[in-house]
Amino acid sequence: MLTITRKMEFDAGHRIPDHKSQCRNMHGHRYTLLITLTGDVVQQEGESDNGMIMDFGDIKALANQHLVKLWDHAFIVYAHDTVVRDFLDSMPNHKTVVIDRVPTVENLAKIAFDILKEVYHDRYGRHLSLTKVTLYETPNCWAEIDG
User: Fold this and answer.
1) Which residues pair with residue 4 across a beta bridge?
2) Could you give the residue ranges of the DSSP H alpha helices within the chain?
3) Cβ(10)–Cβ(33) under 8 Å?
């Protein structure tokens, strides 16, 4: 199976409210997102994407529109973390993303996969599909989810 992968990065803050160590404090990361797709390789002379599964610029544009620009420089907070939500709500125009689960790298990878799966599914009629999302929280720690 032939796959292609686009790497993107963004910065975001979070906290793990019930964690026993420092992660219970508000902090941020430089996340690295890897988006892996499969699909038909275009075999059409004269087409811009000839020889490609999908143009990497198109992968980036779609990921930016549906995920990266929403999370970049935002604070991602668990809906039930009312102390932090109240604090963030007190700041006018603060970029806050409220999610339905604790914002661990595992949960963020799953949410990212669920969002992007529909974005890329069968795009351009090329049997395109999202096969994997890898989300690095640090250079040494990450989560992967396969389709």
Assistant:
1) 37
2) 56-63, 69-71, 82-89, 105-120
3) yes
The percent of residues in the chain predicted with pLDDT above 70, rounded, is 100
CA gap 133, 35 in Å, rounded: 5
DSSP 6-34: EEEEEEEEE--TT-SSGGGS-EEEEEEEE
112: Cβ contacts below 8 Å, ≥ 6 apart = 33, 67, 133, 135
CB neighbour list of residue 145: distance below 8 Å, 6 or more residues apart: 109, 110, 113, 132, 133
Q: How many CA atoms lie within 13 A of 87 on its CB side?
A: 9
Provide the token pair at 90. 């007190």
| Residue 123: pLDDT over 80 | no
Q: In angstroms, rounded to a whole number, what is the distance separating the alpha carbons of residues 47 and 34?
A: 26
* Cβ pair 75, 93 in contact under 8 A: no
Per-residue pLDDT tens over the stretch 76-115: 999 999 999 999 999 999 999 999 999 999 999 999 999 9
